[in-house]
Amino acid sequence: MATQLNPSSSTTTLISPSSFNQQSVKSISTKSRLVFKTQSNFNQKKQFELKSSNGSPLNAVSLHDGAAEKPLAKETVVLPEQTETNLSVTVVGASGDLAKKKIFPALFALFYEGCLPQNFTIFGYARTKMTDEELREMISRTLTCRIDKRENCGDKMDEFLKRCFYHSGQYGSEENFAELDTKLKQKEGGKLSNRLFYLSIPPDIFVDVVRCASERASSKTGWTRVIVEKPFGRDSESSGELTRSLKKYLAEEQIFRIDHYLGKELVENLSVLRFSNLVFEPLWSRNYIRSVQFIFSEDFGTEGRGGYFNNYGIIRDIMQNHLLQILALFAMETPVSLDAEDIRNEKVKVLRSMRQLKLEDVVVGQYKGHSKGGKTFLGYTEDPTVPNDSITPTFAAAALFIDNARWDGVPFLMKAGKALNTRRAEIRVQFRHVPGNLYKRNFGTDMDKATNELVLRVQPNEAIFLKINNKIPGLGMRLDRSDLNLLYSMRYPKEIPDAYERLLLDAIEGERRLFIRSDELDAAWSIFTPLLKELESNKIAPELYPYGSRGPVGAHYLAAKYNARWGDLAGDD
Ligand SMILES: NC(=O)C1=CN([C@@H]2O[C@H](COP(=O)(O)OP(=O)(O)OC[C@H]3O[C@@H](n4cnc5c(N)ncnc54)[C@H](OP(=O)(O)O)[C@@H]3O)[C@@H](O)[C@H]2O)C=CC1
Ligand SMILES: O=C1O[C@H](COP(=O)(O)O)[C@@H](O)[C@H](O)[C@H]1O
């Protein structure tokens, strides 16, 4: 905690370092002095180990007007100095799929690693009637210990479960949130309270929950933050509307828009690779890079999530957020520092330099039923949760362009699909041909075979590899193509934390670097919205592809149009 002393009055205001926003910066430079105190109860060493390192104080300034205009949010409250704090995490939608699969297990992993403060309480909130015991029983089924850390696992689980409680309520009921507030206060036992709400619910009830939580269950003494799950709207208008509605109750600095791909280890490593190795950054431009590819594929269909998916489709589900966020990190200029605002400022700039996506640069597909090895896989429209005349794309490929000096003319190809032949997510950087290549004749006519390619495999089997050309040992001169390979499982046998662990920890610490700012979101939607409207108003029929295949052939023509080939289909991985 930091104590901000205001010389013009005798007021003492407590500010957590994490809520140290632009307003705080201004007030320090003009009239205040700032003294930091270490946060009590945190195991700093452990935090540092797990957390994506930043290390520098949160003093960058957002270039985004909205963040600066807000009054200093509810995070900053006048109160007598207190040393003991309590963290309360309320998972709203606790009975749901994401809560069970990801959020509770991630909270347990943080507890196991010693990354949660000494005093913490976890609440589940949903309409389903459940007792505390029933919630614990439900959570305990999904908790696991890391493979490399099984000792005391049972004891740790029991200890964790004792801190978990449940409150059943309606999402739009202020009264029910006031009841939650009473329970939270009981558990906080008069300590300074920091409250984190995780909205793991369908998006149409986000605003109701934020209204009730902020009016009736926000902290009166510490900070209140809200993690919002995607989707953040369906297009520019609905996203803008959602942001405006959320901002009636929360300041931008209290909103943590999660994109779990930003918490993935290899995505975190992208900036390290670029900015801490001399060899890559000089090549990172149109001068050396011929195309960049962002590929996401899943080997299963919508299976039960059709109700949500059919209203969004693959472009909104994966491209506009996960792949575009990775693209922005890949293509941004060097930020001034690793501070959240510096990084997000650079991401916004690159997103705003991008051309709006055009229909002729997009291919959409939808999987159809397929039988293989005596097993039948249902097509998308045969899923009982999907209307049988649906034309929602389950696959899309797109060519995007960044109109700035660094990337002029370089195609950024994206491909995302469900029910394909494999599950993978990767970034592929294809370099240009070597000019006047002395070994041209050894490669034959296909010079593409000789180009270098850098691959960051986000999942599964995290790896970074660089394809190079080398001589095959022997008396002759025969060339080969090999991989310089950093395979994480070989180099780092330790289990990699789940993306949700990193993101939850960051939200608790007030680190916003991996969360999406509202102006980033606006810029992202403006690239995709015209295309989405055109696809929908013209009812463009998707190209059908068999379940378990490599997707529509149209994707190959799209890449060929820009003189590229999909690296994942080259067969040499
Ligand atoms: N599941 C996943 O893998 C991912 C999910 N997300 C996002 O996370 C959020 C939660 O996802 P998920 O857990 O799958 O969602 P669920 O459909 O499981 O919903 C979560 C909870 O919300 C309540 N709920 C569901 N539908 C309604 C409704 N129509 N009106 C009011 N309450 C409802 C239910 O609780 P109760 O009835 O007890 O109140 C349910 O248990 C969503 O925004 C989703 O888009 C993002 C990435 C991945
Ligand atoms: O956000 C989403 O992501 C999942 C894929 O996440 P991963 O971490 O398992 O790769 C995807 O299945 C889902 O459709 C989408 O909403």
Sequence of strands across the biggest β-sheet: 20-19-18-17-11-16-15-12-22
Distance between the termini: 49 Å
Count of folded domains: 2
Structural class based on helices, strands and sheet pairing: alpha/beta
Mean pLDDT: 87
The value of Rg in angstroms is: 25 Å
Number of strands: 22
The helix fraction, in percent, is 25-40%
Tally the helices: 18
General shape:
globular
What about the largest sheet?
A: 9 strands, mixed
Provide the CATH architecture of the largest domain: 2-Layer Sandwich
Regarding CATH, which class of the largest domain? Alpha Beta
Which ligands does the model contain, each kind named once? NADPH dihydro-nicotinamide-adenine-dinucleotide phosphate, ligand LXAUTJHC
Multimerization status: single chain
Keywords: Carbohydrate metabolism, Glucose metabolism, NADP, Oxidoreductase
InterPro entries: G6P_DH, G6P_DH_AS, G6P_DH_C, G6P_DH_NAD-bd, NAD(P)-bd_dom_sf
Family: Belongs to the glucose-6-phosphate dehydrogenase family.
Enzyme class: oxidoreductase
Can you describe what's shown?
The chain has 573 residues and is of the alpha/beta class. The chain folds into two domains: 192 residues, Rossmann fold; 219 residues, Dihydrodipicolinate Reductase, domain 2, CATH 3.30.360.10. It has 18 helices and 22 strands. A nine-stranded mixed β-sheet has the order 20-19-18-17-11-16-15-12-22, sandwiched between helices. Strands 7-6-5-8-9-10-21 form a seven-stranded mixed β-sheet, with helices on both faces. A four-stranded antiparallel β-sheet has the order 3-1-2-4, covered by helices on one side. α8 runs parallel beside α9 and α13 runs parallel beside α17. The two termini are 49 Å apart. The N terminus is likely disordered. Bound molecules: NADPH dihydro-nicotinamide-adenine-dinucleotide phosphate and ligand LXAUTJHC.
